[in-house]
Amino acid sequence: MMTLRQLAAEPPTLPTRTTWYLTDLAEARGKQELFTRQSPQKLKMLREHALIESAISSNRIEGVEVDKSRVATLIFGKPALRNRDEEEVRGYRDALKLIHERAANLPISEATIKRLHRLCRGEIWDSGQYKEKDADIIQTYADGRSRVRFKTLPAKQTPKAMAEMVELWERGVREKWVHPLVLAAALNLDFLCIHPFRDGNGRVSRLLFLLACYQCGIEAGRYISLERLIEQNKERYYEVLEQSSQRWHEGKHDPWPTMNFLLFVLTQACKEFEQRVGQMKSPRGEKTESVLAAIDRRVSTFRVADIQAGCPGVGLDLIRRLLARLQQQGKIKALGTGRGAKWEKLGN
Hints:
By secondary structure, this protein is mainly alpha-helical. Helix content is 61%, strand content 5%. The protein has helices at 2-9, 16-38, 40-61, 71-76, 84-102, 110-121, 158-175, 180-194, 201-215, 226-232, 234-245, 256-279, 286-297, 304-309, 316-328; strands at 137-140, 146-150, 302-303, 332-334, 342-345. The protein is elongated and about 75 Å long.
């Protein structure tokens, strides 16, 4: 909660890099609805692929791996689970599905955080329960040496700290201390520094960040795996966490290395989403269906430009041909001529 306390005490001057990321994300959010409305059929493939990548990558970061030949069955089927690793991958899938399906009605609360932990940790004695013993983050080297990378919050202080963290998040969103995506990144850092569970904190932190992004209006994580992007930059991920956690207990830490890393990951996900949608071929007739659906959504008069704006990637000639066909069928009529002419649905 120390990062959120900083933001509550004094609105920060955002680093230049942070401002760049927020600008890119604002632009991506503006395009998001157009892309997701454009072609629901081909987005299904992206959703399924992201679900697999997220469940596998987030667990693999923590050293949990499963047989590659079993991945699709684990994610989309209902097989008998062979071992603990398969149980955790399946549990992470269930947590992802919960967020994807219910993010708008899933508050960021202690109950939600414990629920996410219970899902991704499965049937283990302390799933969904805060740690009972102090547990520092230990780094072990290849030669057997080890060191304390970060002293997490003591177990006795954890319940109070978690309650404060959630309360500060809610206040920050309500009072608009700073951009909500900056709050989402701050929440993630504070959660990792509190380290409320005996095990599974990394996985829950990534689920929590995905949920917070949804509630900030960014849904690229539905189609592009944030976890896979974090895994691809794993060394940098650990590096910035160590930088930002120094002096966290005193509230004198620098949160921006970690916060900017998370915003970078989100920006990359949005860019990849746009690229992947643009590269995928549309099934035969999909563009026609997209135009007809855009016309059907209109509740009043409309112009060609209105339909074109709602159908990115669809050519003007196709839109005009479909309008002419609908006019011949008596379903619409033109209220003028020329490029700015309005059209009206006849309702039959």
